[in-house]
Amino acid sequence: MSNKLKVGIIGATGMVGQRFACLLENHPWFEIVVVAASKRSAGQTYEEAVEGRWKMATPIPENIKKLVIKDAYEVEEISKLVDFVFCAISLDKEKTKLLEEDYAKHETPVVSNNSANRMVEDVPVIIPEINGDHAKVIEAQKKRLGTKRGFIAVKPNCSIQSYVPPISALKKFEPVEILACTYQAISGSGKTFNEFPEIIDNVIPYIGGEEEKSENEPLKVWGKVEDGKIISAENPVITTQCIRVPVSDGHLAAVFVKFKNKPSKEEIIEAWNNFKAPELAYNLPSAPKQLLHYFEESDRPQPKLDRNYENGMGITMGRLREDKVYDYKFVGLSHNTLRGAAGGGVLSAEYLKAAGYLTAK
């Protein structure tokens, strides 16, 4: 009998759901027992449902090919079969929020890839290496929901991964202002080049809702838990521009930072190179051995060359130099569907299991 926790993927047929399926194929702690999607996919095998729209470079995992897709709204039935679920369903924000709460109230924890619950004050937005301790707010959330084991935890937006971890390593120098311009891959929209012909030879200077998330979510990540809720940090002040570019995977950011206590360039690079995650986060199955890596080369990082650093779970930086308006500027890169989406979700679930929040029913 397997000792692995039984997992469901809600929204299993979309790009992020497919990535979850691949990452969990041989996971040492988790086993997929349920795949769920919209009513139109329900009743088909997973293989049938994704035929002609499988977006991953690797084949459909054998362990889920023949699983029959359930309707994501069959919450009571699905909850009887799983210990927790990953949620990557594509619904509007209010419907997503209600569906995730429904699973939680059926005593099924939700590790979400969606934005719907990110700014709810008792829902942790977790980057395990940075703010895993925010998980303690879950106890207050359970009281609000009236649950014994059901809760919602969320992975932050993909666009912030390229600059929040590097700046987190510099918090002792007290950053006060940040300008981040992100150049975001098309997989962030759930599409491939075949499905997104308008991006060829083009740049689209708008991604709906992205700038608001990019400016607000880091402050929640850097916030603190008080009286059963997460109080977002007041500083640094963040402004962003988010742009869609013709790249398959990998979100690049041009980042400008002003500090209260300006460090030297050498101090910044030393802080990046010596950054170490807390032990509980460092030893997880999906955790990178070195979260941050600085390139000395003047033309790195590049998405094509560097997005898969540490199996896509690490962050790379380059081009650190002093700036005429801000103190410093640099370029950051993260893999948006690994660290930024499904991989970050799996890592968060590993952290929650290691911390005792995810258990077998």
What's the SSE blueprint?
Blueprint: E1 5-10, H1 15-23, E2 30-37, H2 46-49, E3 70-71, H3 75-81, E4 84-87, H4 93-105, E5 110-112, H5 128-131, H6 138-145, E6 152-154, H7 164-168, E7 175-184, H8 210-221, E8 224-226, E9 229-231, E10 237-244, E11 251-259, H9 265-273, H10 279-282, E12 292-294, H11 303-306, E13 315-322, E14 328-334, H12 338-354
Parallel strand pairs: 1-2, 1-4, 2-3, 4-5, 5-6, 7-10, 12-13
Antiparallel strand pairs: 7-11, 8-9, 11-14, 13-14
Helix pairs in contact: 1-12
Overview of this structure, please?
Pfam families: Semialdhyde_dh, Semialdhyde_dhC. Its EC number is 1.2.1.11. This is Aspartate-semialdehyde dehydrogenase. With 361 residues, the protein is an alpha/beta fold. The protein has two domains: 5-157 and 342-354, NAD(P)-binding Rossmann-like Domain (Rossmann fold, 3-Layer(aba) Sandwich), CATH 3.40.50.720; 159-335, Dihydrodipicolinate Reductase, domain 2. Helix content is 27%, strand content 21%. The chain has twelve helices and 14 strands. The protein has helices at 15-23, 46-49, 75-81, 93-105, 128-131, 138-145, 164-168, 210-221, 265-273, 279-282, 303-306, 338-354; strands spanning 5-10, 30-37, 70-71, 84-87, 110-112, 152-154, 175-184, 224-226, 229-231, 237-244, 251-259, 292-294, 315-322, 328-334. Strands 3-2-1-4-5-6 form a six-stranded parallel beta sheet, with helices on both faces. A six-stranded mixed beta sheet has the order 10-7-11-14-13-12. Helix 1 crosses helix 12 (338-354). The chain is globular, with a radius of gyration of 20 Å.
